[in-house]
Amino acid sequence: MRAAAAVVAALVVAATMLLTLRLARGRITAVTAGLLAATVGASPFIESFTLSGELLASLPAVLSLLCFCVYLNGRERGWPNNRLLLSLAGAGALTGVAVLIKQSAFDAGLAAVVFLLWRERRRGLVPAAVLVAGALVPVAIAAASAAGLSDWLYAVVGYRFDGDSLVTGSLAGRANQLWLSLPPAGKALGPLVLLAAVGWRRSPLLARIWLGAAMLGVLGGGNFHPHYYLQLVPPLSLLAAVGVRTLWLSAPRPAIAAAAAAAAATFALALPVAFATPTEQAKTIWPRDPHLIHDAVLARYVRAHTDPRQRILAVWADADLYYLAARRPAVRYLWSSNVATIPGALQAVQRALATRRAELVLVVQPVAKLDPTGRTAAFLRQGYKRVARVGGATIYRSRSQRKTIATSRPSAAT
Predict the structure, then answer these.
(1) 283 within domain boundaries
(2) N or C: which end of the chain has fewer CB within 10 A?
(3) Is the whole-model pTM more than 0.70?
C-alpha cells in the first residue's frame, strides 16, 4: 500500500508538471510546480504517505484538466470537431473516474465547466454539456454493474448526505473539526498558500477556478481529516510555482528571503517526524486518534489469543486493527461513522454481540458514544467477560467459547 501510494503520488507530480507547462507555458515554472508538490505538498501532517481516496482521485482529476487543455489548444489550432469532442469527452470521463474514487474529486470537471461558461457564455454551453455527459459515462457503467442499484446509490450518494457531509450534523461540530484541522494543514501547505497568493494575479484563470473548486471539495467532506487537504496540493503547487516565478522576476530580495524562510520552517517541522519512532510519529500525526498509537500491541494480543478462523469486533471502530491482526471483523462496518449513519448498522453490532459472533471484543471507544441507551453495553456484559486491558483498550472474551489453541503457544505472542 505504501508503494502504491508512492507510485500514484509520483504520477500526480508528473501530471501536475505537464499541466503547469500547458497553462503557465514555462518549463522552469513546470519543474518548480513538480518540486513543490513533491516536497512541501508531501508533508506527513496531511498524511501524504497513506493510500487515501484523495490521493488516488487526484491523478484522474489532474489528467482530466490536461485533456481539457488539449481541447483548448486544439481549438486555437483549428482542429476538426471530432478531435475536439474526443478531448472534451476524455476530460469528462476522467472526471467521472475521479468522482467514483472519491466523491469530492469533482474539482477538475467543475473548473472546466465554470471556465467555459465564464469565458464563452452561451457558446460554452455545448462543450460544457459534452464534458458533463462524458463524466456520466463511467458513473452510469458503475451503477449498471452494481449488484444492487439502490445500495450503490446509497453508498455513493446517500451515505454522505445522511450524516457524513458538511450539510449534516451539528454546524458547531463541523466548525470545530475545521478549526482543529487548520494547524496541521498550515504546517503542511502554508508556504504553498503564501506563494499562491503572490502569483494569484499572474496565474491562469483556469488554475484559479480549479483551486476554488478543490476547496469546495474539501469543505464538502465535512469531517476535515488532514488527508482531505491532499486535494489542494496540485492546484496550489501550480499557483505557487507562478508565485515563485513572480518573486524571482520582480520581488525585492527581502520578499524572496521571507518565502525561503517559510519553506525552511515547513521542512524544519516535518523532518523530525521522519526520524522519530513509530509511536512518536503516530502521536504527532494523529494526536486525536490514540488507538492508532496502540494498534500494534493490540494486534499482537489478538494474534496470540485467537485462532486465525475466529472473528473479532472493535467497538466502535478500529479498521486497521483487523488488517494488522489478520482477523476478520464480526460485522462489516469498519468506521464509527458507518455505525452512526447507516440504517441497521448499530443493530448489526448488537446482533453480533448477542450471538457472540466475535471471540474477542476490543472496546477502543466508550460504548455509550454511539449508543447512550445502554443496550449495546448490556449485550456486552451478558455475552462477554473482561479479560485484559491492553494499550488503552478494554478486551472482552466470549463466555461460551473455549480457550483457543493460540494461547498455548508462547511463540505466538512474540
Answers:
(1) no
(2) C
(3) yes
